[in-house]
Amino acid sequence: MSLLTRRLPRHVDIRGTRWPIDPDFRLMVELENAVTGPEGLSPEALGGLLGRFYPQGSPPDAGEAVEGMLWFYRCGKDDEREGGGTASHARLYDFEQDGEALYTSFLHAFRVDLTMDGVHWWQFRRLMFGLPADTPFAQRLHYRTADTSGMGKEQKKHYSKMKRLFAVREPARARETLEQRNARMRAYVERRYAEVERGTD
After folding, report:
1. Angle formed at CA 48 by CA 180 and CA 12, multiple of 5 degrees
2. pLDDT digits (tens, 9 = 90+) for 24-55
3. Would you list the domain boundaries of the chain?
4. Other CB atoms within 10 A of residue 101 CB
5. Beta bridge mates, 12
6. H/E element, 42
7. Following DSSP, what letter does each residue of 130-175 receive, concatenated?
8. What's the predicted TM-score (pTM) here?
9. Which residues contact 183 (CB under 8 A, 6 or more apart)?
C-alpha cells in the first residue's frame, strides 16, 4: 500500500465487514514487546490488547480477530521487511532497548513527541526506518548492520566495539530471522487467543 495514494487504514476487513481499530503505534509496540520478551504474552494481556485494538467490539471468530490484528501489525504485508532489508536478516532493533533512542530521534528529526503525539502504526514504521543518519536510532542501526570486512584495523576495531555496545539483547532462546519471528509470533498469538476463548466457555 502506498501512503501517497491511499489513506492509512482505521479498520480491518474481515469477511466483508469493516471492524474499526485503534491504529496508535503504542498498541503494536506493546504487542511486539510482549511476544518477543522473555516472559511472553499472557492470555490476559492478549485479551486486553485485542479489546483496545477493536474499541467497538472484536470479531466473533478468535482466529480472524487475531489475524486482523497481525495483518495490521505487518502493515498489510505478507512478511515484514524491516528497514528495506530481507526476511533473512536478524532483528535490527528492540523497542525496550532502543526506546529512548527512538524518542530522541523522532523529536529531533520530525518534532514528534512520542509520549504525547498519536501516530498511526504504519506511519510510525515508515518514519522509524527513514530517520536521518545523524539520529541516535539510525546510528545504532548503522553499527548493527555495518559490514567490517573491508575496513582497516583501527576502524574495524571501533566498529566491533560499537556493535557490541549496541547489540540487540536477544532472549536466551534465539537469534532468529524476521521470517521465523513473524511465523512464531502469529502462531503464539493465535494459541494464546484460543486459550482466552476456552477460558470464557
Report:
1. 65
2. 999 999 999 888 877 777 778 888 899 999 99
3. 11-79+177-199, 92-166
4. 19
5. 19
6. none
7. T--TTSHHHHHHHHHH---TTS-HHHHHHHHHHHHHH-----TT--
8. 0.79
9. none
